[in-house]
Write a structure and sequence with these properties.
The chain has two domains: 2-171, Rossmann fold (3-Layer(aba) Sandwich), CATH 3.40.50.720; 178-333, N-(1-d-carboxylethyl)-l-norvaline Dehydrogenase, domain 2, CATH 1.10.1040. Helix content is 48%, strand content 15%. It contains 15 helices and eleven strands. Strands 2-1-5-6-7-10-11 form a seven-stranded mixed beta sheet, sandwiched between helices. A four-stranded mixed beta sheet has the order 4-3-9-8. The chain is globular. The model has no long low-confidence stretch (mean pLDDT 96).
Length: 341
């Protein structure tokens, strides 16, 4: 297969580097800053598979037909990415990787939905502009058709990507994407604090707040009638079970999980965007829950407020302290001081 990777951030850079190392013909599409850095110093990968460096000729747009175009830009950047490369994307099989549940539908408006395969990325990576990625931890790469039953093309893509990743075919990819939102819930609090996952969730009070956000999210999707399903190697009921325990019992368990995700500092996708001066994907994670609640005249005030705080940090370029975050969330929930602790 001739492969194009559209978006050379954490996931795109990792995918492109590992596939090229296996001898795959890779076309990379990214930004001018990335092109200059890679031409000068190469593209560097560190982390769980060791150290490596590769060189790419990064293009500003797709300039030829490919067998598979892997879209690794954020949901909010999809339209721009498609507009730049529409002529050749319209002729290619597309693999989406975006967090949240909106990307496939948005893309189907712009391109032929019969060409779209959806995926969920469960491995973790951190992008360091403009030519380095830290591969924090391994994980599955789940794939399936979002608008119909899986077919031979899905199987071909899954088998091909097994040369570098633990790729798997799944039948209910859209249901799993709702579950993946709750995996990504952990991104918002470190983002407003400007901290790594390990630093943020070493604080038990922040862990308690994270569990409250999760519980509100679980309650919202249940009331709406959205059924969350397990993913391979991820049992969503175990995460939900933590939110049903007392905060004093659950918070230390959650802290241990989150602080041991990676030996290297792990910076979530939202914080990575903020650090680069970009709009984050918060509206497609916690903001999705808040939006769904609003459409149903339901209350998801905590997730709505944390989404607002992320946007505040984006615009102000100033991170909040733990005390400021807890105070703001306490006021939002109309709780008395100390209820989060």
């Amino acid at each position: 297969m001739k492969i194009a990777v559209i978006g050379m951030g954490a996931i795109g850079g990792l995918v492109a580097a590992y596939l090229k190392a296996k001898g795959v013909a890779i076309i990379t599409v990214g930004k001018l800053d990335q092109k200059k850095a890679v031409e000068r110093d190469g593209f560097v990968i560190d982390g769980v598979r060791g150290h490596s460096m590769v060189y790419f000729d990064i293009k500003p747009r797709l300039e030829e037909k490919v067998d598979l175009a892997i879209l690794t830009v954020k949901t909010q950047d999809l339209r721009d990415a498609v507009d730049k490369s529409r002529d050749f994307l319209s002729q290619s099989l597309i693999l989406t990787t975006q967090n949240g549940v909106r990307a496939d539908k948005l893309l189907s408006i712009m391109l032929n939905k019969e060409n779209i395969i959806s995926s969920i990325v469960m491995f973790g990576a951190t992008y360091e502009p403009f030519n380095k990625v830290v591969h924090n931890f391994e994980g599955n790469w789940l794939m399936g058709r979002p608008f119909g039953p899986n077919d031979e093309k899905v199987k071909e893509v899954v088998e091909f990507l097994k040369i570098a990743f633990t790729s798997m075919e799944v039948e209910n990819i859209l249901d799993m994407k709702w579950t993946k939102i709750f995996v990504n819930f952990s991104n918002c609090l470190p983002a407003v604090l400007g901290l790594s996952m390990q630093e943020a969730y070493a604080n038990i009070e922040i862990c308690k707040l994270a569990l409250r956000l999760l519980k509100e999210g679980f309650d919202t999707v249940e009331n709406i009638g959205i059924k969350l399903v397990n993913m391979p190697d991820f049992d969503v009921e175990k995460l939900r079970g933590l939110t049903l325990m007392s905060l004093d019992e659950a918070a230390p368990i959650y802290s241990k999980i989150m602080t041991h995700l990676s030996k290297e500092p792990l910076y979530g996708s939202i914080l990575q965007s903020i650090r680069r001066g970009r709009i984050s994907e918060i509206d497609f994670i916690n903001g999705e829950i808040a939006n769904q609640a609003k459409l149903q005249n339901m209350d998801a005030r905590l997730n709505n407020r944390i989404s607002e705080l992320v946007h505040l940090v984006e615009s102000s370029k100033k991170f909040l302290t733990v005390e400021q975050v807890l105070t703001e969330m306490e006021k939002t929930a109309k709780l008395s001081p100390g209820d989060f602790v």
